Amino acid sequence: MARKTKEEAQETRSAILDAAVRVFAVKGMAHSSLADIAQEAGVTRGAIYWHFANKEDLLNTLWDQVLQLYAPLAQASESRGEPDPLGKLKALYLSFFTGLVEDQRQQQLFRILFDDSNRNKETDAIRQRHLVCRQERFIGLQTVLRNARDRGQLSKDTDIHLGAVAVLSFIHGMIANWVMTPELFDIKQQGPMLIDALIQMLQSGVIARSS
């Protein structure tokens, strides 16, 4: 019986997260309330407070789920023992693009991050957390590019810091443009070509250390 209760609690938690995404998509983060989410999920506000302290806690949980999806590939791409660091980096981003297209939770979370009209204290908190994640990813990208340089995938003159800036800016721009204007391009179908172009740019030697 206890196991069934635990499973039911997990189902309720998941239903609340799904409902939150739907409500945020319709009303925007700033104009959504926990009462709105409870009504959409078919639960009481008390049920929401059992699982989440507030909207910020809901957003953080959604963000954690996204990070957990891609953590294994990100860690693999940053491994010093990885024989194909650029290939693993490409696989990471293509996996992310596919997930972004297919997962409404991810799309809505990134819309909240990029849409200034949604700004309030909860979205400011998640933006700050996203900034920390980007800083951590920047450090990880330098590890990937340094490993790629050491393995001959990049020129010995490649500026690792500027290369990481280029990758982070390129990927962030792709995500922001697709999330806010998805009709602009097909990130799932055209993403591989764009990532190949990014890697070719890195390998061309244009981002080199000044002598």
UniProtKB/TrEMBL annotation:
This is Transcriptional regulator, TetR family. Keywords: DNA-binding, Membrane, Repressor, Transcription, Transcription regulation, Transmembrane, Transmembrane helix. The chain crosses the membrane at residues 160-180. PANTHER family: HTH-TYPE TRANSCRIPTIONAL REGULATOR ACRR, HTH-TYPE TRANSCRIPTIONAL REGULATOR RUTR. One of its GO terms (molecular function) is DNA-binding transcription factor activity. The lineage of its organism: Bacteria, Pseudomonadati, Thermodesulfobacteriota, Desulfobulbia, Desulfobulbales. InterPro entries: DNA-bd_HTH_TetR-type_CS, Homeodomain-like_sf, HTH-type_TetR-like_transc_reg, HTH_TetR, Tet_transcr_reg_TetR-rel_C_sf, Tscrpt_reg_MAATS_C. Residues 10-70 form the HTH tetR-type domain. The keyword Metal-binding does not apply. Residues 33-52 bind DNA.
